[in-house]
């Protein structure tokens, strides 16, 4: 492995043209099945490092410099534009000490007509979430890494580069010095980049999307051809998700939820603060992460530099609580006599987010109209299904948190049946109640669940032989930075 990234000896534009000069043909052998010893140009495959949705990565040896190891990434699909996008970014625009170094292009299996691949630094280390769970990583170390990633993102954003798929797996902690290295710019964006998709959102990991991106997706049936203009703030929101995962052992919203339910949770649930899930998390660090995950994009940090400054300032307080491991560990007895005891991470329980009664932020001007078609039906179905999974009850008070109305919740038995009609709550949708499963009671809209009293799920009201849940208003009143983009934004 080369400790320092080397730059191409020819101009980046010429290098890119050299990489892309031939149209790819059909592949005789799948790129994810290369055996050790396979030659790809001057590179010899040593071992597979993993296979993702769009590419296979191998550790390779430079045959011109024996003992010099790099990583080779081959596109799984010969005509996939993501490989070209990643090459275009890494060979020039995203070159940075904390971005994996780029060393050139290859084509395989045919040197001129094969599928595109590229060679980059081989960086031994662990992904962010794995590194956080070694049992030795402290909050100070994690905060330093988070600050470095934030500053790196800020510098890339200043160049017009967006990562668009930042997650713990794409933040590698280098074993040699503990420094973070950003990986996988396959869906990244820069000015003038060719479109990757024709849909409303760019290719992305759903549980990392911001609330405003989800709202844009929901509104897309009413705006054919519109594309979400991914912002620097979306990258920073994803950094908040990654830091939440590193400090608690869980994502803010379970990645195992069905897509519709996960989307609804991202928009309408207030995630518990990291310190409420893992009491070891310093208060100041927890506050930074909570702000990164604010529902209202205007309440988040304005730039990567601002996140960096906030994390550095946070770590300067109460030094004692910053120098302890992130998670408690316990020793497991050895499996066989003579084996060393293994340490096991005691991961906190998965967080139980609170429901928010937050009206959606406005979408672009052309979309600011009453939504009575797809949105109410999707909202009703997603809410009804998800409520049965969330063990919390709804109190009759509201609290203002993070710029949105949040239900004050506590763990109580399910609501007792009542003969009195429930009163409307603040920010609850008012009649007419037109979506599926909605019923009108006291002039407000409620979801009629499949459960029956006295077995109503938590967070519901039992009335008239039905289990009812208050539907939040779908009207916008919170400002947002969402705007319609162009096909190039994808």
UniProtKB/TrEMBL annotation:
<dbReference type="GO" id="GO:0005524">
    <property type="term" value="F:ATP binding"/>
</dbReference>
<dbReference type="GO" id="GO:0004674">
    <property type="term" value="F:protein serine/threonine kinase activity"/>
</dbReference>
<dbReference type="Pfam" id="PF00069">
    <property type="entry name" value="Pkinase"/>
</dbReference>
<feature type="region of interest" description="Disordered">
    <location>
        <begin position="350"/>
        <end position="371"/>
    </location>
</feature>
<keyword id="KW-0067">ATP-binding</keyword>
<dbReference type="InterPro" id="IPR011009">
    <property type="entry name" value="Kinase-like_dom_sf"/>
</dbReference>
<protein>
    <recommendedName>
        <fullName>Protein kinase domain-containing protein</fullName>
    </recommendedName>
</protein>
<feature type="domain" description="Protein kinase">
    <location>
        <begin position="43"/>
        <end position="311"/>
    </location>
</feature>
<keyword id="KW-0808">Transferase</keyword>
<dbReference type="InterPro" id="IPR000719">
    <property type="entry name" value="Prot_kinase_dom"/>
</dbReference>
<keyword id="KW-0547">Nucleotide-binding</keyword>
<keyword id="KW-0418">Kinase</keyword>
């Amino acid at each position: 492995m080369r400790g320092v990234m080397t730059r191409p000896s020819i101009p980046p534009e010429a290098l890119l043209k050299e990489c892309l000069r031939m149209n790819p043909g059909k592949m005789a052998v799948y790129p994810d099945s290369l055996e050790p010893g396979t030659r790809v140009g001057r590179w010899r495959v040593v071992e597979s490092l993993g296979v993702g949705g769009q590419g296979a990565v191998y550790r390779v040896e430079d045959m011109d410099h024996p003992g010099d190891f790099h990583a080779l990434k081959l596109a799984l699909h010969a005509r996939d534009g993501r490989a070209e996008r990643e090459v275009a970014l890494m060979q020039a625009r995203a070159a940075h000490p904390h971005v994996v170094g780029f060393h050139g292009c290859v084509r395989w299996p045919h040197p001129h007509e094969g599928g595109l691949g590229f060679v980059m630094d081989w960086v031994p280390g662990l992904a962010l979430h794995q590194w956080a769970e070694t049992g030795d990583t402290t909050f100070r170390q994690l905060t330093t890494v988070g600050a470095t990633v934030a500053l790196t993102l800020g510098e890339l954003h200043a160049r017009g580069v967006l990562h668009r798929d930042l997650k713990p797996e794409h933040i590698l902690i280098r074993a040699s010095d503990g420094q973070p290295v950003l990986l996988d710019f396959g869906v990244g964006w820069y000015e003038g980049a060719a479109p990757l998709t024709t849909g409303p959102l760019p290719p992305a990991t759903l549980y990392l999307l911001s609330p405003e991106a989800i709202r844009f997706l929901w509104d897309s049936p009413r705006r054919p051809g519109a594309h979400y203009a991914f912002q620097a703030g979306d990258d920073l929101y994803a950094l908040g998700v990654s830091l939440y995962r590193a400090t608690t052992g869980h994502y803010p919203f379970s990645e195992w939820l069905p897509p519709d339910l996960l989307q609804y949770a991202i928009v309408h649930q207030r995630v518990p603060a990291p310190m409420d899930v893992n009491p070891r998390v310093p208060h100041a660090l927890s506050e930074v992460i909570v702000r990164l995950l604010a529902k209202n994009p205007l309440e988040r940090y304005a730039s990567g530099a601002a996140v960096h400054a906030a994390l550095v300032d946070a770590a300067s307080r109460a030094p004692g609580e910053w120098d302890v491991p992130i998670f408690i560990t316990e020793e497991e007895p050895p499996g066989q006599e003579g084996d060393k005891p293994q340490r096991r991470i005691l991961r906190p329980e998965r967080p139980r987010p609170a429901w928010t009664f937050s009206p959606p932020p406005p979408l672009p001007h052309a979309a600011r109209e009453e939504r009575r078609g797809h949105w109410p039906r999707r909202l009703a179905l997603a809410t009804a299904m998800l409520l049965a999974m969330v063990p919390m009850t709804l109190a009759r008070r509201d609290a203002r948190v993070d710029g949105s109305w949040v239900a004050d919740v506590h763990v109580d038995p399910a609501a007792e049946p009542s003969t009195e009609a429930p009163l409307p709550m603040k920010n609850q949708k008012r009649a007419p109640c037109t979506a599926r499963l909605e019923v009108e009671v006291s002039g407000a809209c409620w979801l009629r669940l499949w459960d029956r009293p006295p077995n109503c799920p938590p967070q519901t009201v039992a009335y008239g032989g039905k289990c009812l849940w208050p539907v939040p208003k779908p009207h916008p009143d919170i400002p947002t930075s969402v705007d319609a983009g162009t096909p190039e934004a994808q």
